[in-house]
Design a protein that fits this description.
This protein is mainly alpha-helical. Helix content is 55%, strand content 0%. It is flat and about 60 Å long. The mean pLDDT is 89.
Length: 80
Amino acid sequence: MKEKDPWLVRPESIRILWIAFIIILAVTVLADFFVEHHGYFGIDGTFGFGAWYGFFACVVLVVFSKGLGAILKRRDDYYD
């Protein structure tokens, strides 16, 4: 690693960012204890609904995009 590397590729910066993101996530989920929920569908009033709903939505999007990429994939020499 060179000293001129951008700060986002330095291992110590990456570690600090991971720790910061985990702390922010924990604080937002714990803040859910102090919010009164008024769920419309029953399940949306549960603890941490936004966190796990967002996580599963992200997983579904990644799986869908992988499947779509497999369908739409072209050979490397497609335009040659």
